[in-house]
Amino acid sequence: MLQSDSQSNSQRFSSNQNSYTPSMASTPVEQATIGRSVVIKGEVSGAESLYIDGRIEGSITFADHRVTIGRNGSVAANIAAREVVIMSTVKGNIQCSDRLDIRGEGTLTGDVVTQRISVEDGAVLKGSVQVRAVEQKNAKPQAQASTPAQSPLVKESAQPEPPKAAAATAGH
User: Fold this and answer.
1) Helical residues (DSSP H) of 24-135, grouped into ranges
2) Is this prediction's pTM over 0.70?
3) Of 25, 44, 139, 163, which residue is 20 to 30 A from 7 by alpha carbon distance?
């Protein structure tokens, strides 16, 4: 019985060995790629993620998408994107609506405005970094609406905070 099962399996798989069926388990990611030999001078923008392995000089705007500067990439441009990943050299200012990730072999010379930042060991960052609150607009109206009615509570909650800060500072 084992022999017949193994024979039917080998017959079943032998017909599929030369054909390629793409996996449909994961959704395809739309991503434009700038190859190693490509040099672009000017404005680059788009509505999909961008992988740069070549050279760009100018400006890069991908507001709702990721811009990745690959290991062979070189960028001398200001970048505005949802997420930026740096694996080589970037000279220019970066504005991220979500996250900046500078990998160990990455170098950034420029100012950064982002909500989250990650700098691995070995990475180089020269410039200023401004980390914004995630939802700053929603926090302000709530604070203004609750301040007049609960001003005594705000004062009470403000008093315990300085000793916590002092304790945290004293612990260092």
Assistant:
1) none
2) no
3) 25
